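Question:
Now give any protein.
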Amino acid sequence: MSGERSTPTSEWYEGVKAGMIRNKSGDRYKPASLRDYERNMRLRVLPELGGVQLTDLRRPDLQEFADGLLAARLDPSTIRTTFLPLRASTAAQSRGARLR
């Protein structure tokens, strides 16, 4: 990754809220998306993965996270929406989005 520091998941989310990190079209995230991301990040993602560098997240880590959500008896649709901000954050990281 050319020696650059990866963005922690929590910093990515703060950058999205501030409009510093944009979606893949280069636009700010829509208010409805931000509300959904905020709820999922606050309730499930940040308590577990908030300090993890995005580039350190691996498939087994995410599978363990998903397994924990299943063990907590969350509905599969809730688990799917929980992963939306994670997908967006890793996509932004792969596009080179960094907090400035």
Notes: Residues 1-5 have pLDDT under 50 and may be disordered. The helical segments are 9-17, 31-49, 59-71, 76-82, 84-94. DSSP finds five helices and no strands in the chain. The first helix runs from residue 9 to 17.
